[in-house]
Amino acid sequence: MLSDIEIAQQAKLLPIAEVAKKMGIKDEELEPYGRFKAKLNDSLADRLSSQPDGKLVLVTAINPTPAGEGKTTVTAGLGEAMAKIGKNAVIALREPSLGPVFGIKGGAAGGGYAQVLPMEDINLHFTGDMHAITAANNLLCAMLDNHIHQGNALNIDPRQILFKRCLDMNDRELRNIVAGLGGKVNGVPREDGFQITVASEVMAILCLANDITDLKKRFGRILVAYTYDGKPVYAKDLKADGAMTALMKDAIMPNLVQTLEGTPAIMHGGPFANIAHGCNSVRATKLALKLGDYCITEAGFGSDLGAEKFLDIKCRYAGLAPNAIVIVATCRALKYNGGVPKAEVGNSNLEALKKGIVNLGVHIDNMRKFGVPVVVAINKFITDTEDELEYIRQYCNEKGADFATAEMFAKGGEGGKELAQKVVDACEKESSFNQLYSLDLTVKEKVKKIAQEIYRADDVVFTPQAEKALAKIVELGGDKLPVCIAKTQYSLSDNPALLGAPTGHTITVRDVKLSNGAGFVVIYTGNIMTMPGLPRVPAAERIDVDENGKISGLF
């Protein structure tokens, strides 16, 4: 059996100019990055602005195992399958972060015969967007510290600096550091820390900005610190917004690539869904809606995280309304939610599946609350037994949920034709999309609404630290913004050990942060970290390159 990277390396890719031409994209609207990837410039969006939108399909999932359950594979395969049934679909995906690539999950561009290519490029440096985000973020940090070092005309309190440096790598050593050695030349000593690039506010802003003008305005609104007398300091006060935008001039353009079967895919932005809002860029999704009759997009982790944020944050700001929601479920993840250790989820265990399938039920019920038709994609693994698959089908029938078995990993688009037709049918059904909460609610009321409606919690408790931070945010008008909850992806609760469909639990908010440029309030729950660490045996140990430059081990 071939690995993902071996399948990708044997593929015959179309030149990206040819992919673009088939989509009706003009040469002058394309900025090539080699033969097989390109950026789409503003002239394309301007030309298509008056065209009608296609149907919007969101792909989400149940709570996963630590290895992930193939949501990107299903998204890519669904786009391929749409072509098989004569539909014009464009995929809109996030860019992978180097953190998971070298950490636990490995590559994140799909798998098997439902991959987005060129796989090695996408999983590594791609078109440099992650590096541009990192540079823009750290430029702001450098200008902030330099301002303090050069006399601190703004009277910034080094103990109240809110904005952190970032790095697109899992490096727990940098979570909390002491920066600056003091003296005339080495900077003012202070406590600092790093977060992973995909959790940064700069990443969130990129994914929510309408254009470069909006990007610059949002950068200027970033809350970076408070003064000694408690006044807010923004990036525009440091005159950093212009230079940050200059660094992002190319990164703001969405990237065009293709699947193994030549289906166009627009990849842009990559915020994590457990510590950020988990969706690709508004610009990429809107382009895909103009270029295809169907836009197939995905939101990270389970529907309690990525999908809720897609629906309550991204759709709210972008004026989007999905026509159908696909929930990816696997026997493996359901058995994990039934208490089976990750190492044993490939073993047949119908009793554990029966115990864990309640997790799927909660996700179906949760997505229905948004008024959008739901389809369950049963992503088939080679270790699944027919008894297990049939039990999931029966459960979906009992829930009154449409479903289809997804075999795109093994069969490409051909293995997703049933799912594609179910999605097309769902898009024709009556839909009455609505957000879960009103912006008129307070931050606490919004968090409680999500906790009770989506996480099935009894209550929400704010720590003294969170209460103090929230009071300042309310003073700055943060009560009128959506909330972005940072929470473990492995459980509906804020405790990763509570699997299945836990009830009676309490969500603990330990801190609150205003992402003023992005336009939401970040709510930190449980022990969630914004800078992950590498596992005991990182995926990086398996990755290598030979004397001819051929990469191996990238899943």
Explain what this protein looks like in three dimensions:
With 555 residues, this protein is an alpha/beta fold. The strands form 6 sheets. Strands 1, 2, 3, 4, 5, 6, 14, 15, 16, 17, 18 and 19 form a 12-stranded mixed β-sheet that branches. A hairpin with a 5-residue loop joins strand 24 and strand 25. The longest helix is centred in the N-terminal third of the chain and has 21 residues. The two termini are 12 Å apart.
Helical fraction: 25-40%
What is the average per-residue confidence, as pLDDT, rounded to a whole number?
A: 95
Largest sheet data = 12 strands, mixed
Radius of gyration: 23 Å
Count of individual helical segments: 20
- Uncertain segments are none
Bin the strand percentage: 15-25%
Give the N-to-C terminal Cα separation: 12 Å
Number of strands: 25
Query: Judging from the principal axes of the Cα atoms, what is the shape?
Result: globular
Please state the structural category: alpha/beta
